[in-house]
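dumping these here so i dont lose them again. two proteins, back to back, each one seq then structure tokens. dont judge the mess
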Amino acid sequence: MTKVSKDHIVDVAAQLVRERGFNGVSMSDIAKAVGLQKASLYSHFANKEQLVSLALQRVLDELLAASVLTGEALRDFETIVGQMSRLLSSTRRCIGFHLLYGLDLSLTDVPVKHFFVALEAHLMAALMQAPQVGQPAARAVARDAVACLEGASIWLLVDDDVNAMERALGRACDAAQRALAQEAQTAPQDRLLLLEGENARLRQEAAEQERRLARLESMVEADSCFRSFD
């Protein structure tokens, strides 16, 4: 029997969903793409929703690979949104966007929420390296940036319109520049408290996500032990 790692299966699933959309990919398609029987695939993952949830985390990791903060707020922000733009332009779709709309999110709602919240948090962290940008302004710019870029991916898919993505990227960067140009509205000590609170919230969310993913993997392993096939 061919040995295929779980990481490879997740990578292949992510690529297939990018190319065809969630509803356009079946477990049989994924099994065929990795050279496994469908039954063997179910020994690793209980269903497509659980597999795609892990694939979504892989996409998030790829997006945030360029998010190392250097202290240069605008440059770091532009690096992150630029990476988002390139990924969306090359794949013509985002897994998170497809899972968020029109699907039963009973198994995928936590990973989807984590996907978008993590993007928002990294964009906020980049902007808040500048002392004049407070948490409310950073959150508004970050959310608008994610909304613009994800929305522009619709026109890439529907009409192959790359200009929509370029305009969205430009608007996101312009909004960041305006936020950075504003006078400081938060005292340094208040800003420090805000940052500490935000860091604590992000750590708590990360820990909760790890616990949920661990439970998810345990469910898959337990299910594989008792699953029988015709």
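---- next one ----
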Amino acid sequence: MSTGLIILLVVIVALVVVAALVTLLIGHRSGGGPGLKRRFGPEYERTVAAHDGDKRAAERELNERVERHGALRERPLSREERDRYTARWASVQEHFVESPRQAVAEADQLLGEVAQVRGYPEGGRCDEQLAALSVHHADHVDGYRRVHRMARAAGAGGTGTGTEEMRSALVGAHELFDELTGVGGGASTSGRHRAA
């Protein structure tokens, strides 16, 4: 072989290796695909649906959430705070029998407050709070999202939500409440709930 041909082969092999490394690094840095699907669970599918099936756009959004909120460390609740919030949640459940719409509004307010106390963005910026919660509590954030949507609709005079739909949303929101307060037994009261 001539020296020129050997140099050309070395350059081609080097370019292929560099291209493979760049592809690997971009794929690793974006955290897309199976890693995001595993981390976000049902929230991954909801986000893909919100982007009309465009997985790349959904993964871009989820990666942005991780970049903005992934380093958030939840502030632990004191026993007194946990007991106070648990008593308030019990009151929400009692109110549901007599006034489901009021109970949903109370649950929305309580979840926003607990999340804020734990270190998430304030409840007045609900979309940002939901985005942050989805990074750390992806399996249960949808219940809160549904409760918030129903509370907002009821506040605007909407009456289209049935009692069973409100009950289902409240049950889903209760799962997030248990995680945020550590009442559910398996939830941590500080730190993240999902591995990166």
